[in-house]
């Protein structure tokens, strides 16, 4: 999730129970041409392992060179546990460059990209892929694509149960995800509409997937990983996360983000975080008014003031 799963947010999710981490995706050309500018997209800490660096592009040779560069030069300061290829992003500016889900319409190029990265990486680290179930409702080809990816050397595949045309609307089709999992011998990770432990249990019970990926639900509720694990282990729900704990995490994220910036620019950091803060605060008391104020914050002290006001409202509501 570009703009979301940076090194700080991944740290938070790992602490809250996420097992495997994947970086924000970065273009192969970005890796090859602008190391300093793109380095932040490949950074991770040792505590986040196992972690993969995610690439997108449409040139198998250049994709392979970029993957090799990440491994050899350790652009993240260390070698990732795997390289992940994005064949799923539906965003127009990525698709227009023949990246992400656009390659679901061009299986020969998709195979060239996948095999090119595998050849370049060799046996050093595994290569995985993320994909959607097809370009649109008339061209759902997930099983075909998964077989191509398996033959190209992918060690695992994550399948988002929507077409590119759906974007993030409608419902994820887990029947197609299940069909993919049964059609290949490598692990398949299902993705789409996973919001809680009951969702994880249902999908693992009703399909042949080897694992489940949680994405957008964590933007609002990074505790979802802890909650899901608890539910799988005990069948019970954890107590609802209180407002104080929620705001503590929001403020901690803000402070970590400012500390991590090389120039320490608080205003720039908080401006960039506004959309993240608004996502965290969905469902808070007075959420609409709160989001309106969060979209203008430029300092941690402003967020602290909003937190104090919000928790005061929560106490009154109780």
Could you please describe the fold and organization of this structure?
With 318 residues, the protein is of the alpha/beta class. The chain folds into 2 domains: 7-225, TIM Barrel (Alpha-Beta Barrel); 243-317. The chain is 50% helix and 12% strand. It has 15 helices and 8 strands. Strands 1, 2, 3, 4, 5, 6, 7 and 8 form an 8-stranded parallel beta sheet that branches. The longest helix has 18 residues, at 243-260. It starts with 6 loop residues before the first helix and ends with a helix.
Characteristic key phrases:
318 residues; TIM Barrel; 8-stranded parallel sheet; 15 helices; 12% strand
Concise overview:
This protein is an alpha/beta fold and 318 residues long. The protein has helices at 7-15, 28-33, 35-42, 60-73, 92-95, 107-121, 142-151, 174-183, 197-206, 217-220, 224-234, 243-260, 266-280, 287-294, 300-317; strands at residues 21-22, 26-27, 51-56, 82-87, 127-134, 157-163, 188-191, 211-213.
Provide the CATH superfamily of the largest domain. Aldolase class I
Most strands sheet? 8 strands, parallel
By secondary-structure content and strand pairing, the structural class works out as alpha/beta
Instruction: State the separation between the terminal residues, measured CA to CA.
Output: 35 Å
- How would you state the average pLDDT, rounded? 91
Number of strands: 8
User: What is the CATH architecture annotation of the largest domain?
Assistant: Alpha-Beta Barrel
Low-confidence segments, given as residue ranges, are: none
| Helical fraction | 40-55%
Assigned CATH class of the largest domain: Alpha Beta
CATH topology of the largest domain: TIM Barrel
Backbone shape: globular
Q: Number of folding domains?
A: 2
H and E order: HEEHHEHEHHEHEHEHEHHHHHH
Our count of helices gives: 15
Please state roughly what percent of the residues sit in beta strands, choosing from under 5%, 5-15%, 15-25%, 25-35%, 35-45% or over 45%: 5-15%
Radius of gyration: 20 Å
């Amino acid at each position: 999730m570009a703009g979301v799963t940076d090194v700080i947010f991944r740290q938070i999710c790992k602490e809250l129970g996420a097992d495997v981490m994947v970086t924000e995706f970065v273009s192969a050309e970005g890796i090859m041409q602008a190391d300093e500018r793109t380095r932040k997209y490949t950074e991770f800490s040792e505590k986040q392992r196992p972690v993969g660096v995610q690439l997108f592009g449409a040139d198998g040779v250049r994709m392979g060179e970029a993957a090799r560069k990440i491994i050899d030069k350790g652009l993240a300061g260390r070698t990732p546990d795997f390289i992940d290829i994005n064949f799923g992003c539906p965003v127009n500016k990525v698709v227009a460059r023949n990246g992400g889900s656009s390659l679901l319409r061009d299986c020969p190029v998709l195979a060239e990209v996948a095999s090119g990265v595998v050849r370049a990486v060799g046996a050093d680290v595994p290569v995985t892929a993320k994909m959607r179930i097809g370009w649109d409702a008339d061209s759902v080809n997930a099983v075909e694509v998964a077989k191509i990816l398996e033959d190209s050397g992918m060690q695992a595949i994550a399948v988002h149960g929507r077409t590119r045309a759906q974007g993030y609307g409608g419902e994820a089709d887990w029947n197609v995800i299940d069909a993919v999992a049964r059609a290949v011998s490598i692990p398949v990770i299902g993705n789409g509409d996973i919001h809680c432990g009951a969702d994880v249990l249902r999908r693992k019970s009703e399909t042949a997937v080897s694992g489940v990926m949680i994405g957008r639900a964590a933007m609002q509720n990074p505790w979802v990983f802890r909650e899901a694990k608890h539910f799988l282990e005990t069948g019970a729900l954890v107590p609802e996360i209180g407002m104080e704990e929620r705001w503590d995490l929001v403020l901690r994220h803000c402070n970590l983000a400012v500390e991590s910036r090389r120039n320490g620019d608080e205003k720039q950091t908080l401006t960039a975080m506004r959309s993240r803060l608004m996502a965290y605060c969905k469902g808070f008391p007075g959420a609409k008014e709160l989001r309106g104020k969060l979209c203008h914050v430029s300092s941690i002290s402003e967020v602290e003031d909003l937190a104090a006001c919000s928790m005061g409202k929560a106490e009154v509501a109780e």
